[in-house]
Amino acid sequence: MKTNAKKSIMNLAPVFGLIVLVAAFLIVGHMKGINISYGLKSVINQSVVVAVVATGAVFIYTLGSFDISLGASVAVSAILGGMVYIKTGNLLLMFATCIGVAVLVALTNSVLASIFNLPVFVTTIAMLSVLNAMVLLLIGINGTGSEISVPSDAVAHLDNIPFKVAVLALYILACVFIFNFTPIGRKEKFLGGNPLCAQLTGISIKKYSIIAFIISGIGVGLGAFLSIVYAPTLTRSTASSVGMDVIIAIVFGGMPVSGGARSKIYAALIGAFSMTFLSQIMTLFNLNSGIGQIVKAAIFILVVFIAASNHRQKELPR
Amino acid sequence: MKKVLSLLLCIALCFTMLVGCGGTTNGDKDSDTKAETQAETQAETQAAETKEADVATEADVETEADNGIDMSETVKIGVLVADVTTAEALAFRSYYTQYIQNQYNVEFVYSDALKDSADEKSAIDTFITNNCKAIISFSSFDRMAQIDQCAKAKVYYAVATGTLTDEEYEKVKTNEYYVGAIGPSLDIEYQTGYDMAKYYLDKGVKNFAIFGGAVPYYTDMHIYRVAGMLAAMADATGADYQGAKGPAIVGKIYETADVKTGSIGDVNILGYVGGYDMDDAWFGKIAEVAQTSGLEMILAVGNGSDFFGTAVNGTDVKIASVDAYADSYGAAMDAGILDYMAGKFSASIGPIFAITYSAALGAPIRDNDGNAVALGQGYWVATSPEQFKEYYSVDNSLDAPAYDKADLDTLIGSDYATLEKFVAAYTFDEIK
Amino acid sequence: MKSNSIIKRVLGAVCIPIITFLIIFIICQSRGIALFDSKSHWIIFLRAVASVMLTTFALSINLNSGRFDFSIGAISLLSSVISAQICIKLGLPVVVMLLISIAVGMLLGLISGTIYVITKLPPIIVSLGVTLLYEGIAFAITAGYGVSFVTNYELTSFPSIRNYLLVIVIALALIILIFDYTSFGYKYRSLLSGQKVSINTGIKEIPNALGCYIIAGGLMGVVGVISSTNTGTIQMSLNFGSIGVMFTAFLPMFIGGFVGRFCNEKIGYLIGAITTAFISLAYARLKVDSSVQQIITAVILVCFLIYLNNEKKIFKFKKTKKE
Q1: N or C terminus: fewer CB in 10 A for chain B?
Q2: Using one digit for the tens of pLDDT, what is the confidence trace for A149-171?
Q3: Same domain assignment for residues B65 and B119
Q4: Neighbouring chains of A at 3+ CB pairs within 8 Å?
Q5: Domain with C71 in it: what CATH number?
Q6: Chains with at least 3 CB pairs less than 8 angstroms from chain B
Q7: In what order do the strands lie in the sheet with B338-344?
Q8: B313 interaction partners in chain C (CB closer than 8 Å)
Q9: For the segment C75-100, what is each residue's pLDDT rounded down to a tens digit?
Q10: ipTM score of the complex?
Q11: SS3 of residue B106 by DSSP
Q12: Domain tally, chain B
């Protein structure tokens, strides 16, 4: 009983980590006299895209798979969405394009992997290359050359915290429901934990892989839309850091990369906000880039180490 | 229990690391300030950088300017930097954090590397959270959005080492929170490229290669520099580039974001490389161009000797670059690889600091029509190792930089005419 | 019969680079360009072969064992920064730079491996942290300036046909020796095919994993020297900027996997590296735009993988069609 309680505590390490980071931000911020309420808004603004994309990606991670092309997919979806808005002036069409393109990319990834028997991760590596090239081509053919600029007035009314929190909350609630209260989530966890056994019971890995990618694609599309809302000028490097930020957020939030039963849908949210708070604290200490990154690396490994301390096995993990 | 203890230990460790690596408190500033002002060599400069968050104490700096402006309150200034690893960005950072910060009651808060306009927006949000009164920007993904964001938060905004396009300036010149821009205008960039090419054309050089840097990414300043080079070739030979002459060449380059090789009269462009792909194919292209038979000069819009330096080994090909004054370029000049350097000097960002600080102190400087400042400032051009050394020794000095406190004091709370005259006299001889 | 099998194996092994070369040769000829027009083209080609082959070894050593390692680029960066700084300060020759870089690379690999075996975290997570750590250290020790030794003719004398060939031959021989002819190699392969069973038979996994990280680190130390001596500069990377190096190794690794059925898998990686080096040289000679390069590379990768994973089906389809 006592062991179970300890296990639960250690499982919640990422949550404690976030609480500690929030506390550190508030305490140090107060000592340094920063504008804390503005800072909290800024944290939400900076976390929301990664949180949305990462939440969707949890479904892929649960299967024990890994998508390295998410950032590039956000970029392509946002650029195409932006181009559609410039042509039509219709915000809904822009939104639909962002979601549509992202889901299409996700479907391509999963269907290619399913039809041609490719490992999903390998497909996403190739997709990363294709999407990066598409970003360059789309920016190039746009005519203005270096950027695609959606008029800021067009999205200004959406660039507010209630809207972003609402989008994030709705998407997360939907994901939580699917993940925890439908057979999809249970079967995905089963597939991630023991694919062979799951398949022998009749669960199709191809089907659930496609479902996971579609859900993730919706997250990517929402992320692309929110990216435009936040920064309507899109360039060749738009969302270029989102891909790695998503991986870091998911892991930092306590999601096991091997997937399976221990997968947590809230990991992405916790991780995304933790990383942003950490960056804010770095700024408070005005660390130079190199030292800041060293500290970030150390904290990252420490937190993940603690979070995973309940699940060590005899062999080295792979 | 052990695990809970380890959790607590880790939390404590994280906190210790942050505190340990962060800046020292104001109480420690005296000793650090003294140590830093004695720093002369680059090694010392580098070592001191970890202490860059130190802010000068009120005892070290004046709390009131000669013209009565109250400087007693520490002013936080955010600095937006897109690429934190360039020689130029690092030299600028040293000047601000190790000279200016020790002379004035200011604290610079630097952004991390910025990759897009979303990063810019996040960094500005972070500066506002940190109560920065002003922001000096070296990042240009979306200038208009930056200015808009700053104005909404009532934070002053200034453009360092660059200028806005005419169209952009017209939109924001009356914005009271837009302080202005001081740096090479696009006309100056064009002229810089023109002068570089003309220098060699006058010497009778006929066979060139061009490194276009960020031309494929439609970066304005690089396009204007290349256009200047091509215009000089067209003027020298009476021919044209793709049917265009003079500033019209700018438009030709914008059409394709590329430079066509071939002849302009009897001058030959034997090779062209653009972008910063840094992969095997890209370095292959560089080697190809550098080894082109008959090639005499490589004109680079950016750091040419870093990329082409080893590739021209064993040839008589020389390189001309536009960048900042840095140690490595001095070595390249000594070795005869780099022959011409149009470089920004690190203190060139002094005047923009002065007017931004002045605005934050409640004494903004506007032009005669009440608009934001838009002043051009050119490069120091070195064409010999001796000249480079002379410039670099001043540029690299933290004791007596090109623009020292006494110089900048004349700008804080001054008027437009004083500022205009000061910035116009940017050449090495005029400053010294 | 035996000679038939040898011919089949040789043809199987060399068909990919030969077909690639022929396609590139035809394209170049149609544009009046010779692929190898001068000595410098051979240097470009061999440099690509050497660095890609070593990176592929470094990636595959751990990846084949299920250990995904993002940090190989950061190891290459930091080991070259440290070795170059020491050699510039002490005026040491490039051979010493190579040796120091290998030693530092091995040490960095050991550190990565140690973090992995102590924390028992999934290797991909460890490698994310280690990448940030090594990039940060490289940035901090050079104060962000990186290292420039363009005018140090001793250190920049490394690029030559002889040196690259030596690197390729020695590295290939050593890797084959270590992984195919030592007990370390046998244990490695045993762990690779059955982790639990191997451990139960008494094979110690931790020393073997550490060994793999050390070897991968040493190889990336050489890659660091190859790339830094090419330009005489080492540019800094932050926020995972160094992971791009890793992506150069995927195509040759998959080609190596295919060719591995006809010959030693390590030779397969060399053949994969030769194939990608042909492609890189062609991009340089034909001045292919970087966006087009990315698309071509991605399409080649996808097509190759589709073929690789569906080879049996394709042949079956061909057979039924014939019948």
Answers
A1: N
A2: 899 889 999 999 999 999 999 99
A3: yes
A4: B, C
A5: 1.10.3470
A6: A, C
A7: B262-264, B267-273, B207-211, B297-300, B318-324, B338-344, B380-382
A8: 153, 156
A9: 999 999 999 999 999 999 999 999 99
A10: 0.86
A11: strand
A12: 2
